[in-house]
Amino acid sequence: MRQLDSVAWTGRWKRRPAAEKLCLCLGVMTVSLAVAGPGGQVLIFALMALLTVGLAGVPFWTWLRALLLPAGFLVLGVLTLFVSVGWAEGEAGGGVTLALVPPTDREAAVFVGLRSAACVSALVFLALTTPLPALMTLLRRLGVPRDVADVALLMFRFLWLLFHCLETGRRSQTARLGYASRSRWLRSSALLAAGLLPRALDRGTRMDAGLRARGYDGSLATLSSEERPSLLRLGGIAGGVLVLGGVTAWIG
């Protein structure tokens, strides 16, 4: 997660308006869910890969690593759709039976996987090109309560503190040969887990004290360096989404 945010902050499209990237993401997902067939889903995935890696300048291996975790869930989900679980009655009693679903159901399962992969590629594009504060600022403008957006930012920051404490603790234990053997590995892992939450809470308390010392009044104002949304670009995005919908509907 930290790497995703770092890529978003240092990427080529970090100053592009979050509203435009969100509209593109939602438009592509709408086409995927409402219009596209199997071939269209593959086209959408390839298009989002081209936008993310080619135009936005995200490193290919970073993009691929961002897709690995959701891809694992998708593969497991599709495989479960290939199997039918039943109950067979017999002379010696009943039992659970496993069988492959009919070919039409297998085709439907593959289509669900392709559609999910296309939508995930759009979300990964948004995550790798848009810093979280920009999204929170956009949500405030769209009417999301300020307190909800501020709590989301604080929770995100606290997760950063938690991961930072985990990394520094593990690095320190590794330097002291805390993982040289299995017994040391178990002991070091237990010590790290026991001390992680108190250290993170202490860092969070200090963060709260720092905010109050700087005049925190319940609102987390963030500076934005992104460009202003352009009606011309938004129109181009809308037109591109419509063209994509037509092409995917034609491909099937």
Automatic annotation (TrEMBL):
What domain of life?
Bacteria
TM spans (from-to): 21-37, 43-61, 68-88, 108-128, 231-251
The record's listing under CDD domains reads: EcfT (cd16914)
Q: How does it sit in the membrane?
A: Multi-pass membrane protein
Note the Pfam families from the entry.
CbiQ (PF02361)
Where is the protein localized? Cell membrane
Keyword Transmembrane included in the entry's annotation: yes
Q: Which coarse location class describes where this protein primarily resides?
A: membrane
Task: Please give the InterPro entries that the UniProt record associates with this protein.
Answer: ABC/ECF_trnsptr_transmembrane (IPR003339), Cobalt_transport_CbiQ (IPR052770), ECF_CbiQ (IPR012809)
Q: Name one GO biological process term.
A: cobalt ion transport
Q: Any idea which UniProt keywords this protein has?
A: Cell membrane, Membrane, Transmembrane, Transmembrane helix
> Is Membrane among this UniProt entry's keywords?
yes
Cellular component per GO?
Answer: ATP-binding cassette (ABC) transporter complex
Which family does this protein fall into?
Belongs to the CbiQ family.
What is this protein identified as?
A: Cobalt ECF transporter T component CbiQ
Can you name the source organism?
Answer: Phaeovibrio sulfidiphilus
